[in-house]
Amino acid sequence: MNLKNICKTVAIVGATICMGTSCYAQQMLTLEECRSMAMQNSNTLKMAGEKEAGAEDLRKMALSQFFPKLSANGAFTWNEKSISLLSDEQKDKINNMGTSAQDMVADAVIDYVHDATGVSNATLEQDFRDRLHEGRMGSELNDVGHEITSAMEFDLRQIYAGSVTLSQPIYLGGKLIAAYKAAKLTRELAGIEMDSEKEKLQQQVDEAYWRVVSVKHKQQLAQEYYNLLSQLSDDVTAMAEVEVATQGDVAKVRVKLNEAKMNLTKATTGLTLSKMVLCQLCGLPLDRDIDVVDIDVDSGQTTDGGQQMLSGDSIDMQAVLSRRRELRMLRIGDSLAREGVRVAASQLQPNIVVTGSYGVSNPNMFNGYQKTWDGMFSVGVAANIPLVDAGACYAVKAAKHKRREIGYQIAEAEERITLQVNKLNFELQVAERKLAEAESNGAYAEETLRMANESFKAGVIGSSDLMAAQTSWLSARSEIIDAEIEIKMDRLYLIQALGM
Questions:
Q1: Which pLDDT belongs to residue 36?
Q2: Distance CA 135, CA 128 (A)
Q3: Is 160 helix (H, G, I), strand (E, B) or coil?
Q4: Which one-letter DSSP state was computed for residue 300?
Q5: What does the domain layout of the chain look like in residue ranges?
Q6: Which residues pair with 360 in a beta bridge?
Q7: Percentage of the chain surpassing pLDDT 90?
Q8: Distance of alpha carbon 484 from alpha carbon 91, whole angstroms
Q9: Topology agreement, domain 1-81+160-294+355-385 and domain 296-349+386-500
Q10: Closest by alpha carbon to 236, among 258, 259, 252?
Q11: According to CATH, what is the number of the domain 1-81+160-294+355-385?
Q12: CATH fold group of domain 296-349+386-500
């Protein structure tokens, strides 16, 4: 594929992308607007918010463990058989003990009369037995026997029971306090993670925004360069027609013009793609036609609040270390590890709990066996005192090792942050010097191009010399744009590294 076909292909791709964005009116965006939209539409921030809310609920749950717990329980049981403390033979004897006693009395009286008088009269004896049977002694004793056997039977085929219990922990070895502090620290940690996600998102938006600014100005620069070469091509063509220039000069200019056209198409396509990335971060449709507020990059003006370059002597590293979220998270992790040691040590401490309850049942046995509802209160104290628990001892040692590990992580992080701040500060100073040099070179290139244009019009120099001056001008302007964007990003990174 030759150069002409490549240019056509790239132009078609760029035109297709641009056509997709034409369905909306162009929307001008500032950096603050982009940040605000990204914060509102970020699913990452929404997830972090849910995590923070969950941590708050866990803190409240840990706090609730200090208060009494009230619970209610109910039960119903169906049994196939009832319970009897007497066998059928024993129940028969007890149920008929009146009749048995009555017969025994009759036999005793008859035997006594027979022995005393020596006379035996069957008719009188039978009459005596009949009269005795007609009395109430036997039936009353039989009724008593029935009451006794009934009392020895328990109808447990349907049992109802219920209770209300109140429990209050008195001392659990300190684990409740440690758990609450750990939950509170976890909530604070979730808040810091939320802020960290916001900072990361802001950095991504700033990078995408300044990338659009950079590509936009480079596209404008490519357009200016293309216009210069286009004008030069017309001039050289006209000169060739009057035989002041050769066809070789025309060909050289046209090659440069084609290269400039390709670079212009690439810049246009790159600008469209950069805007799509910014739209994605802001939660806008990818085909939305947007533009950033025009910023004169060459002027050296910034929109980052006028942050000035910080020298190494003006940076208070102790203040930086106190603000950095990584160190704050590690310090919270150290506090969590401390509470972890306390939780592990609580396994070696006594546990004391007070309980109170009221239970009811049907049937009940508070006043003999009754198939009615009745209940009673009960209050108790339960204590558990560990005597030997080797596992808990090792758990305490492991928790202490974890805390020491986090201490080493804090020390390493402080060294890494110190190096990072100094490195970014140095890079910012280098970028400032690069911008000064680029502006100086740009001014020289502007003057050189002006003189070359005048010399070319006067016929002193040829088209090749003019194209060389134009190329130098393009390179110098491009370096200014790159240096200015680099300063903006270096300042952004340094401010974030300072925890500001």
A1: 92
A2: 11
A3: strand
A4: T
A5: 1-81+160-294+355-385, 83-154, 296-349+386-500
A6: 162, 375
A7: 43
A8: 110
A9: yes
A10: 252
A11: 1.20.1600.10
A12: Outer membrane efflux proteins (OEP) (1.20.1600)
Amino acid at residue number 34: C
Backbone angles phi, psi at 347, to 5 degrees: -70, -15
Question: Which residue is associated with the tokens 């791709």?
Answer: 13
Under 8 Å between Cβ of 497 and 491? no
Q: What is the DSSP letter of 66?
A: T
pLDDT > 70 in the chain, percent: 86
Q: E strands of 122-277, at which residues?
A: 153-154, 158-171
| Burial environment of residue 470 by CB neighbours within 10 A (0 to 12, 13 to 18, 19 or more) | buried
pLDDT at 60: 92
Max Cα separation, the chain? 184
| Per-residue pLDDT at 40 exceeds 50 | yes
pTM as predicted? 0.70
Judged by DSSP in three states, 68 sits in: coil
Residue 351 bridge partners (DSSP):
384
Torsion sign across C-alpha atoms 165, 171, 175, 178: positive
Would you say 105 and 183 are in contact if contact means Cβ atoms under 8 Å apart? no
The pLDDT of residue 12 is: 42
Residue 248 tokens, joined: 């070789």
pLDDT digits (tens, 9 = 90+) for 14-26: 444 444 444 446 7
What is the structure's pLDDT at 296? 55
